[in-house]
Structure formats: C-alpha cells, structure tokens
Amino acid sequence: GSLNGKYKVQRHGLYHLNFKVVSWLQVYSTRTEEWLHSLQGHTNQVTGIALNPANHLQVYSCSADGTVKLWDFIDGILIKTFIIGYPLFAIYVSEKHEGIVFLHIGFQLVAVHLPKSAEQEVEAKELSAVSSHISPNPSCTAFGREGQYIAFARNLQLNVYFFRKQKTYSFSLKATDKKGAKNAFTCIACHPTDDCIATGHEDGKIRLWRNFIHKKEYTYSTQHWHHNAVNTLCFTPEGTNLLSGGIESVLVQWQYGTGNRKEFLPRLGGSILHVSASSDGQLFCTSHSDNKITVIESSFKVCGVIQGLVKGDAVLTDLMIDPRSKALVLNGKPGHLQFYSLLRDKHLYNLDIVQQEYIYEAGLDQFEVVKAAFDIKGYWLATVEERGQKSSDLEFFLKLWSYDERTQSFVLNTTITAAHTDRIISMCFSSSEETTMLVTIAEDGQFKAWCQEDQNFWSCDFVGSYHNLKPTNCSFSADSSLLAVSFQEVITIWSPDTWELLTTLCQPPGVIRDLCFGRLSCSKYLISTTTRNLLCCWNLLTCFPVPPRMNIIIIYSAAMFVFKPNEPRPLFTHKNVCSEKIHRAVFVPREEPLNNCDESSQWLNRSQLYFLTQNMDLLTFSTATEEDRMLSSSTRLVIDDSVAVTPFYLLLGKHRQQQQKLNTPSHQAADRPQQPQGSLLHTPAHVLPPASVLCSMFVSSLLISNTGEMESSEQEMNSEKEEEDSEGEMEACDSQQELRAQGSVDEVTPKLSKAQERELKRVRKTDFSWMAGLIDSKP
C-alpha cells in the first residue's frame, strides 16, 4: 500500500458469480481506521500502487490487465487510463522523472512516457527498457538519491543504473560466507539524500553500500538483528532512520550513521511484509502476512489497526456461522478463532483458544485450533486444539466455551485433557433447544456423548463403538431424535435418548467422508459422500437410497454441482469455479429472501454460498440482481483531466450540464430551482473547503437566473403591444354602441386609462396561490 499523512490506499480483490477477478483499491482513514471508498476500474489483479510525485492527492495503480490508472483517491475519481498492453507486476515513480513511470514487465524494467491527452483512455507508445535482470520481488527495486539512479538486486547480485551516464554497475556476493550464512538479496532501499543503498538478506543481515559510484572502490557495512530473512526496508523521508521488518513481527528502527543503535516495536501480528512512511515522517505503516495493516506514530506507538479476513497457513476448522452475530468463524491468527462479519465486510474480533504466546519461528511445534462447533442457539462453543504429528507425540485438549452476555464474548467453561486416547476427527452439537449434547468421534474407534452436569460443567454420558471400526463422521437430525455415526463404509443410526442402535446402512464402495441430515421438509433424508466421489441419499423412513431430494452442493476440486429435489440431474453446474482447489464451503442464511431471481439461481434465494481456496481466498456466488446493485452503488464519476477537479465543479458544473440535457415538461417546471446532485454532500467534511467559501456558490446555484426573467418581461411587453393594437381597431367599431349606452345611463361610469387597464391585467395574471397556505394555517 501507499501512505500519505491522512489516508491509506490498499489493494483489494473480490470474486463474483462469473468468477471474473474484480480488483480495486480501498482507501482508509489513518485517524479513524474506517473505510472511505473503493477505486474500481481494473479488470484483473492490482499489482502495484504509487503516489503521484507531482500531486500528493493522486495515486497511480498498475494491474495485470495491462493498464496504468491515475486516481484522485480523495474523491474516489478515475482521472485517466494509460493502456500499456502487457501484464504489469510493479510500478515505481520518481520526482525527477516527471511524466514517466517505471513498470515491471516480465523480467524487464521499462520506462514509460505517459502522453498528455484530453482523452480518458490513451495508449502509451513510448517504452524504453532500463534493465532485463529484474527480480520478480518488487521489494528488490528502489530509486536512489533524487532519482539519479535506480538500484535493483536479484539473487546474489546488486545492480545500480545511472540515468545520466546510462551505465549499470554490478556488485556480487558469494553464495555463503565463512560461517555458512545465506547472502541472497531479499529487499532494497535507497537513502533519500545520501549515496547509500541498504539491502536485506536471507540470513537476516542488513548491508549498507557506499562509494558504488566508483565500481572498484565500493564498501559496505553490516548490521544484524533479524534471525531470519529481512522482508522489507524503508528509509524515513529525512533519512535519519532505517526501518526493517521480517518474520519476527518486530519493527526495528535503526538510527542512520550511529552504528547499531536501534529501537524495537514487537508483537505486531503476522510477519511484516512491507513498511512505508508518510511524506512528513509522522506515520509509519506496516502490512502483515495475516492481512493486517498497522499504523504507527513516529514515536513508535501503534495508533491504528486495519484488519481484514485473517489469513493463516491453513484453515483446519470448518467454515462456521455464529448463530448470534451471523459472523463467519474460522481459524484466525495462530491459536485463535476469528469472527468476521460478511454483511459489513469487517473483522470483528479474535477469540484466544490456546491462550499461549505464539513464537514466530519456522519448524517449531505449537498448539493449533483444529476443530470447532457451535450449538444451535450460539450459547456453547466446542474447540479442539492439538500439537504433534505422530501419535506418540500427540497432545490435544477439548474445550467448551459459554457465551457471556456481560462481556459479549465466549469464556472458557470446561477443559477436558483426556477426551479420547487418539486424535479427535469430528464433533457436532445436538439441534434440540431443550437439551444440549456434544458428540465427538476419534481415531481410537469410539464416539462419546458429552452432557452438562448440575453445576453447568460437562462430563461424558455415553461411549459407543461398532465392530472395532474407525469412525469417520457424525451428524444429528433436525429434531435431535437420531444420531448418525459413520464407521468406514457403514452408517449407524442411534437413539440419543436410550443409546440404542436402531439400524445400519451399507454405503456404496468407498470410505464415508461427509455425513449430513436434511432440514425442514427434507429432514427425513440423510446425505453421505465417499472417498470415491460418490453421493448417496438415504430415506430414513424406508432405509433405502433415493435420488437427491434437496439442494445439495458437491464440490470436487474446482467443480461444483447443485441438485434440485426430485431430480437426479444437477440444477446448476460449474466445472471451473476458480483456478485454485476449493478447500471449505458454507451456506450463509439471508436476512430476507431474494426476489426476481433466474431459474438457475433459485437455490440462492434463501442463502448464499461462500467457499475458501487453498490460498485463503474467500469467494462467493452472487445473482445478477445482487451484482447490478453492487455495480450501481460503486459507480464513480469519470472526468476529463483538463478540467480542474474541485468541489465547485462537481457540485455546480456537473449539475448544470445535466440540467441542460433535461427536457422540462413546462416553462413553470423549468423555472423551479433544482436541488444540486453533485458529490459535495458525499465528500468527507475534513477534505472540503471552508463553509464560508462554499456558501455563496451554493446559494447562487439555487437562485433563478436573471436571463429567464428578462426574457419573460420582454415577451410580456410584446404581448401588451399586440393587445393595444387590437384594442385600437375595435374602438372605431364600438364607438356608436358606446354612445348609445352612455345616453341611456344617467350617471356615467368613470373610464380607466390604458395604463390602468394594463396594470389590472397584470394583477389578474399574478399567482396568489401561496396565500392559501397562510389562510389555512390560521386557527
């Protein structure tokens, strides 16, 4: 991401029903940590962003779609699109090279001259190669002092390209030194005012290179604190400090020119992947491997955290929905469960399950949360944490958590240290609202039922097995009157009230992998899948297999099939859901059913399907109605860059252009002032000009223009002249009739002058309807 003093711009991506990657940039406030708006326009993954050196309120973005876009990220407006034509992997800018951006295309670093044009989209044709030995890691390329040179490293070689000389100097390191350290370059940063290059290496060392202007007289000094590879380096704008970060999740601040004097900010979260500093040096920002951004003051105090969906090494639990908060629950930071709001697209909190400090060191065996389950009311949560791969080294705990209304979180109620003699495979809660029961199955060949005692603690109520076979899964029926436990290729049906074995069902070839009872009208069906990719639907009233009779989702690798009731053929199929293997999936109930859905999308009316890939990407299906609503709500203004982007233009200029195009139904409607529809009212208050500046312009936009009044008065004068001419013609014809009438009347009525008649006609035409409201309002 890129950071200026008040805003943080972050790359983001989302997948829709057509599985076309729609990537955008998200803008956050560093003070409130709140999301402000998104910058949408790229059609493929956003691969790099950089602030415009000529305007700190603008940002460049590059994408794999082959375009570079210039944004006004304050107002969320796309200014211009430059078409490059090649997939782009990184972007670099320099104040000295105005109008030029440096792009990472393949393994080449290319300088692109951005053409000046009034068109919204323009093709950039002036491309010149700088080097063909660029590392695929964008952190291994950086501009030097005032843009005089650019440094880039790859493997064991450091290269410095001087723009004035148009020469490249190369410096190499050995694969290992005498102590066996790894010298490969991992990141690079250049001092802003001094000829010094800082490089990070796999062994955790930081080297400061000097005198590289003379190829044979270069020197470097070594600083070492990180015990693993250095992931990122960054100099502060003044060059007084150097920031470094790595897998230890500790931000280290080295004082430049003072040897090994340094400060530490530990326990920031996941591994630090990137660090940046604001232009005034007051804020630092770190991005982490767990999808988190930390905002840090220059005094080395954390002042803000922007947390997305926490990404770990793997999701060992299922995707679950908290019945209370409707949040998505899965593995979060090590030893925790995360609660994520899908409706608000916001991370809620982490629940510490292991309750031990996690040590960020590769190869260290530590406790991890592997299983979790909620009861139907969301009052109880069961978790399993374990450590060790082999049975001889295996340690695991079964924990039950109760929801605390006071703290609005789960608190530990019971810890069971020896729930089974071997690894727990699966567990589930009963669906009854009257009594709560937990069933666990393990590799020791047993399943156990756990119930609450009088003191509200949990204990074992029943232990069951079947012919010494290994259990694979378990599920309660909708009313909790039946418990199904699968053993290899056999399904056993038990009564939880008496623990009587009611019947057994012989599954088709293959070990049973998944087991699930139907819901609502399909509660009499039991669905199972096998390791041979076979699905079987059992009717428990007849104990015979039947075709699928409810909406069932089957996901094989990256293919998905949806079955409709009473039809063995799939209702919906998608063989290439995504490029990665799908790992987990869950249905999320909707608050309100969708209307006007296509026939092929009827299965999404009452719930929405979310699924997770191996790379921890969360995807979802959305109907055409939902997608249209999302696109309409995220529409951004696109303007010509030749026009100054000011709130006055957005409020008045754009509004007046729209009003000129409107066809008003009558002259009276056209004269009525319209409410401005610009983006001024949607712009954050802290980026607007003072109210005193806006007031006069805003009021002026509401007034009726004088030109309309002048035209109406001229038309009225012309009509009066025509009336005078017609009256003169009628006077001669009616003179005799008037004399006869005057002779017959004793008292002659006083005659009005022409000016008085015109004034009387004008008064008659005046609209006094506004007085009706005053008359009606009187008591």
Automatic annotation (TrEMBL):
Residues 659-684, 708-753 are annotated as: Disordered. GO terms for biological process: positive regulation of rRNA processing; positive regulation of transcription by RNA polymerase I; rRNA processing. Its main location: nucleus. Residues 721-732 have a biased composition (Acidic residues). GO terms for molecular function: RNA binding. InterPro entries: Beta-prop_WDR75_2nd, WD40/YVTN_repeat-like_dom_sf, WD40_repeat_dom_sf, WD40_rpt, WDR75. WD repeats lie at residues 39-81, 178-209, 223-264. It comes from Cyprinus carpio. Residues 319-616 form the WD repeat-containing protein 75 second beta-propeller domain. This is WD repeat domain 75. One of its GO terms (cellular component) is small-subunit processome. It is found in: Nucleus, Nucleolus. Keywords: Nucleus, Repeat, Ribosome biogenesis, rRNA processing, Transcription, WD repeat.
